[in-house]
């Protein structure tokens, strides 16, 4: 009651008219509504089978198959309303909706699957051993740093996979190509390369600042190409 | 409901080494056309769309085992496809070292170079209008107009509120109509 008085006083300071109007609820609910509400909510949240079972004995007036088709009926109504919205608001756009001006080479979709599987298979075979996922990030960070900021001439040309990758990376134009190139490397090659060429100071600095609990997941890395940079920024490792 | 069940079955099959490749093939076949057209509308050119789509599916192959099943596979695929298309456009923009408006003109030029292009036909005017939009509006318009995606699903893909998406779609549709009327 104390709160009510406070709220009423507050309202009086804002509007004496509103405060003078008695609090009467002009809306009503069907008798017994709240007694069965929880049960009904449970039933409707499950929709199909459970709902059908619950109603079977209580209400024989529900048409057969009602709950099986309920979600489809609702979705259909939503879609119809949306289609109508476009038709009424933007008639020109609506009239053009089904006209596709773009062409796709014949048989493209039939062959796409094979092209993708062909690109995946050799990379799977190339994996010989697995290293800890956090080590991959350290390795990728060091390689990326070296690749971006060190001149190519210090590496011996054409020797191992890494030097081939570094040479090829000069032609890469998209982050997708860089990611594909990195993924094609044998992990043993990465480890050997880092042992030969990695900057020990940088590795120590990275390892000192990394809490393995905070490392991005592989999922985050796949979704956002900037995940690695963001992580390095977060731990204040200066990117050379 | 069937598509959700099928996706769940496919995800279970993908985790079994014996059926992994078959499950992945089914996922590609099921979603390839929708994703292709989503990407194609963003990047315009077929070869670019093909590169982006293939790279996208390779990322899906690598990331699907860690896919958190609290979201729908379909939403997750659109998210990766969208991200890949935007990354591609961003890289293209940097490569060309041009301003945003010039980049947009680049997409319009790609449309004009299509062998079937006809500036007098309404359907091509529509495409020109779409490509004249800012990137985010173009994306929202495409997902709504062509993919008929509900706002709540679009919201998960683009990390934007439903209200902002509705406003964005309305602005985009208005601008395109104006473009068509004035050109």
Question: What would you note in describing this structure?
Answer:
- The complex is a heterodimer of chains A (240) and B (183).
- Chain A is mainly α.
- Chain A contains 14 helices and no strands.
- Chain A has helices at residues 2-14, 16-20, 33-46, 48-56, 66-89, 91-96, 108-126, 133-149, 161-169, 175-183, 187-197, 200-209, 218-223, 227-234.
- In chain A, α3 packs across α4 and α8 crosses α11 (187-197).
- The model of chain A is unreliable at 39-48 and 149-159 (pLDDT under 50).
- In chain B, 78% of the residues lie in helices and 0% in strands.
- The mean pLDDT of chain B is 86.
- Chain B has helices spanning 2-15, 20-43, 46-63, 73-96, 100-112, 122-131, 135-145, 151-158, 162-182.
- Chain B contains nine helices and no strands.
- By secondary structure, chain B is mainly alpha-helical.
- The longest helix of chain B is centred in the first third of the chain and has 24 residues, at 20-43.
- Chains A and B meet through α5, α6, α7, α10 and α13 of A and α2, α3, α4, α6 and α9 of B.
Note the overall shape of chain A: extended
Number of strands of chain B: 0
Query: What is the radius of gyration of chain B computed over CA atoms, rounded to a whole number of angstroms?
Result: 18 Å
Care to count the β-strands of chain A?
A: 0
Beta-strand residue percentage of chain A: under 5%
Shape of chain B: globular
Q: Count the helices of chain A. How many? A: 14
Percentage of helical residues of chain A? Answer: 55-70%
The number of helices of chain B is: 9
In percent terms, what proportion of residues of chain B is strand?
A: under 5%
Order of helices and strands of chain A: HHHHHHHHHHHHHH
């Amino acid at each position: 009651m104390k709160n009510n008085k406070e709220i009423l006083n507050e309202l009086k300071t804002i509007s004496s008219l509103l405060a003078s109007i008695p609090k009467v609820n002009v809306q009503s609910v069907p008798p017994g509504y709240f007694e069965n509400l929880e049960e009904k909510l449970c039933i409707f949240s499950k929709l199909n089978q459970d709902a059908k079972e619950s109603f079977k004995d209580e209400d024989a007036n529900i048409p057969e198959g009602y709950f099986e088709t309920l979600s489809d009926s609702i979705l259909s109504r939503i879609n119809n309303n949306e289609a109508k919205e476009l038709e009424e608001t933007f008639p020109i756009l609506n009239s053009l909706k089904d006209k596709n001006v773009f062409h796709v080479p014949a048989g493209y979709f039939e062959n796409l699957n094979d092209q993708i599987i062909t690109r995946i298979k050799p990379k799977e075979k190339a994996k010989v051993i697995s290293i800890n996922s956090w080590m991959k990030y350290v390795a990728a960070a060091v390689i990326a740093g070296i690749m971006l900021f060190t001149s190519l001439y210090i590496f011996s040309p054409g020797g191992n996979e890494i030097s081939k990758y570094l040479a090829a990376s000069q032609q890469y134009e998209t982050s997708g190509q860089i990611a594909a190139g990195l993924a094609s490397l044998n992990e043993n090659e990465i480890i050997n390369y880092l042992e030969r060429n990695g900057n020990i100071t940088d590795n120590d600095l990275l390892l000192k600042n990394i809490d393995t609990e905070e490392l991005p997941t592989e999922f985050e890395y796949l979704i956002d190409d900037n995940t690695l940079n963001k992580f390095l920024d977060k731990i204040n490792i200066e990117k050379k | 409901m069937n598509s959700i069940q099928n996706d769940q079955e496919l995800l279970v099959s993908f985790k079994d080494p014996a059926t992994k490749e078959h499950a992945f093939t089914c996922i590609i076949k099921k979603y390839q056309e929708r994703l292709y057209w989503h990407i194609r509308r963003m990047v315009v050119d077929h070869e670019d769309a093909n590169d982006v789509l293939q790279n996208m599916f390779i990322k899906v192959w690598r990331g699907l085992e860690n896919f958190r099943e609290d979201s729908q596979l379909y939403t997750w695929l659109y998210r990766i496809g969208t991200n890949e298309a935007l990354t591609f456009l961003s890289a293209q923009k940097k490569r060309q070292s041009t301003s945003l408006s010039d980049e947009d003109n680049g997409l319009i030029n790609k449309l004009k170079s299509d062998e079937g292009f006809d500036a007098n036909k309404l359907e091509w005017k529509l495409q020109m209008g779409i490509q004249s939009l800012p990137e985010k509006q173009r994306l929202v318009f495409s997902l709504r107009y062509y993919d008929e995606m509900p706002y709540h699903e679009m919201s998960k893909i683009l990390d934007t509120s439903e209200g902002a998406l509705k406003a964005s779609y309305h602005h985009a549709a208005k601008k395109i109509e104006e473009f068509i009327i004035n050109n």
